[in-house]
Amino acid sequence: MDRFVVISGCSGGGKSTLLDELGRRGHAIVEEPGRRIVAEELQRGGTALPWLDATAFARRLIDLSLSDRAAAEDLPGWVFFDRGLIDAAAGLAHLTGEPALDAFRSSHRNNRLVFLTPPWPEIYVTDNERRHGLSDAVAEYERLTAVYPSIGYDIRFLPKVSVAERADFVLSELTRS
Q1: Distance between CA atoms of 56 and 61, rounded to whole angstroms?
Q2: Are strands 4-9 and 28-30 parallel, antiparallel or unpaired?
Q3: Nearest CA-CA partner of 119 in 35, 11, 20
């Protein structure tokens, strides 16, 4: 859907903060599925966690991302996703070798522009839900920079500027495309 816009990229690169700003500006946002799954799994003592069972986690990511997309269809205007379906499918493909991305090359399309946050070591932090180090985050970022163009998306790299300037950049790029 052309009005569905993905903000992806390096973990700890400021995606959630940018989404919060876009939400304050009146746009619909969909929170990162991974953090929601981790919080739920930790609360219930589950094992579908990236550090315990990464494959089960990736499969849950795909399911939740599909549910998020379906729920977002009724939202008006731009809908900004903090990661989403392609990230989940790319993760599953990386872990298992399954052709998980093949199912989404032509279906469940988003806006052709995808915005990636580059690695930003100065703001990177771990927490209870993000336990991997910066080197793992950078490796994932590098995979995503290859995956998105390979299935027909145009990447826009987010500049390392203030949150307001990043939001302005995203909205400007979308109105120009």
Answers
A1: 9
A2: unpaired
A3: 11
Averaged over successive runs of 10 residues, the pLDDT of the chain (177 residues) comes to: 89 88 97 92 94 93 93 95 91 90 78 90 61 72 93 94 97 92
Write phi, then psi, for 115 (nearest 5 degrees).
-105, 125
Tokens of 89: 């499918």
DSSP string, 28-64: EEE--HHHHHHHHHHHHT---STTT-HHHHHHHHHHH
Helix count and strand count (H, E) for the chain:
6, 5
Among 34, 33, 69, CA closest to 49: 34
Q: Which domains does the chain have, with CATH numbers?
A: 4-176 (3.40.50.300)
Say what the pTM is: 0.90
pLDDT at 132: 58
First and final C-alpha spacing in the chain: 14
